[in-house]
Each structure stands twice: as structure tokens, then as C-alpha cells.
Amino acid sequence: MAPTLSRITIYPIKSLDGLDLESTDVLPSGALRNDRRFALVDADGRFVNGKRTAAVHSIRATYDLDSLSVRFNDAQEFSLQEERDEIGQYLSSLLDIACSLIENSDAGFPDDTSAPGPTIISTATLREVAAWFPNLELEESRRRFRANLEIDGVEPLWEDRLFGPAEVPVPFSLGRVRWFGINPCQRCIVPSRDSLDGSAIAGFQKSFARRREEQLPRWATRDRFNHFYRLAVNTQLAAGQSAGRLSTGDLLSIAQA
Fold first, then answer.
1. Which of 21, 86, 198, 202 could be stapled to 57 by a disulfide with Cβ–Cβ 3.0 to 4.6 Å?
2. Range of 194's domain?
3. pTM for this predicted structure
4. How far apart are CA 140 and CA 130, in angstroms?
């Protein structure tokens, strides 16, 4: 089976729950439409996210993109454009941090601003990582690592083919959209925690890094790992690609050198 896009997930509010889509537009910035379009910040402009407080994991968010609204914890619904002040107040009370909601509809708020495209991982990788830890299931692995694009039909860690030596982007196509693979994504504390209640697996980072190094494919570019707490691939649009559209079922092909 050829590498195939099997899942698209966007995160309309950075750090909160994702939304699965069958297709989505790629913006000129390389971001997926509505991905990390909104973010919570404190009075100093610092992100309020899962890296900062485990309380974020207790917040459930469901979205309606047609009305651009969000419902929190199956209760209160807000307009993401007309009630941002109210959203900030509501979430401030849940997180015990004074925060407000900001918006960037053109590029979102990516973690890696030098590679602001969607993050890519394979289904097999997520399943393999889940097997490294007791009682960790595939769906929970997805929620912890928060990748945008999931590729099926390949072996675990196949996506490590999408980066090479530093300063040498790997060109590939997904459907009709051309991309550069840039680097293996550095992880934070978030994957160590249960995505729903914030409870942590003791020694997660150390155990993960050990297994990641042990299973690094022999063909992977090892010197891109200053440490092995990295998973998924950061991307950017290829030169000359201004926008596009992705759909599940699109095939991924790496450009031949």
C-alpha cells in the first residue's frame, strides 16, 4: 500500500482539543485553515497552554466551523470571533490564570515558526509508541502527540524519511500540494500526561527517548537528534507553492533526488 493520508486533525484553539476533518485548505503561510487560529495568552502575552499548566487537559472543546463557535465541557457555547472576551473570562476561571483569546487567521500560532506547516506522523508510529507504555491505546497516543496529518500504509517511524541533514529540506508531495520536510518535532511535557485528566506517566520522557533511540531506523539522519525526545515531522510549503487543498486518501510521494 502506498503512503496515504488517512487522518486530518486541526486544533482551532492552540492546546485544546482537536477536530477531525475529511479535507481542508492549505493557506499561503503553510498552515491548515483554522489550525491553531486562536490561542490563549496571559497579560504579558505568554501562551497559556499544556506546557504551562496541566489544568488545560481537563477542558473539553467541540467546534462548529460553519458558525466558528466553540462549546466547552458540553455546556457553554461561544462565538470565537464575537465573544472572545467572554471566552477569556470563562477559561480564566477554569485555569486560575487571567487569560485572553487572540487570533491569527493567516498563519495560526505554530510552535515551530520556521516550519509552520502541518506536523506529520504515521499511524504505525502512534501505535508503536502506544505499545511502549502500559495501558496506552492508539487514540490516546494520537491525543498526546497532536499531529495534524496521519499517514497509513507504512511501517513505524516511516516519517523519519521526511527530514534529512540540517539545511537540506526533503521535498515531497501530498496530493497536489508540494511540501518540504524540515525536522523531527521536539516534544514537550504534554505527551507524558493523560490527555483527559492531566495525570502523568512517571519517567515518560526518559523511557520514550531510550526506545526512540533503540528503534531509530538505520537510514534515518541520526545527527538531527541532539536528543531523542522527538517524534513527528515539521514541515513548510515548498517554494512556489502558494496554497492548496488536502483530503484523506491523498497519496504521499517523496521527490527523487
1. 198
2. 4-31+111-254
3. 0.96
4. 8
